[in-house]
Amino acid sequence: MNIALIAHDKKKDDLIRFAEAYRHILERHTLSATGTTGGRLQKEAGLHVKQYQSGPLGGDQQIGAKIAEQQVDLVLFFRDPLTAQPHEPDITALMRLADVHGVPLATNMAAAEVLIKGLEHGLFAFREILKESTDQYDT
Ligand SMILES: O=C(CO)COP(=O)(O)O
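Above are the sequence and the 1,3-dihydroxyacetonephosphate SMILES. Below is the predicted complex in structure-token form.
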């Protein structure tokens, strides 16, 4: 599965701890992340991660585009609900595209735990079916 990982600044430590705890699951998948988050995941959690631009510079939009192409199966987005983000429209757009394309998206660690355990237990087969059903519309 293709997993996108994103964390706002005040949630980055939490995401690193989460990634260390679930490294045994995450390392079996293809990982991508916004710039700063991805850099920390590689350096501190030892995971191989494709890095997009930093969020405020377009990283959320880049991941949103991958969602629209059905190239993301799960988004773990540790959001900071108490700090205004300059790129809030990009964040909203990413979450909207996850809804449009049936991509599970966790916005906090509690939800991320449930989804990663679901992934471990093979509950993501529906993503393959969804992708196959949308493939027929591809040109
Ligand atoms: O701002 C972000 C998501 O909206 C995260 O971006 P960085 O990982 O580059 O800090």
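The two ends are 23 Å apart (CA to CA).
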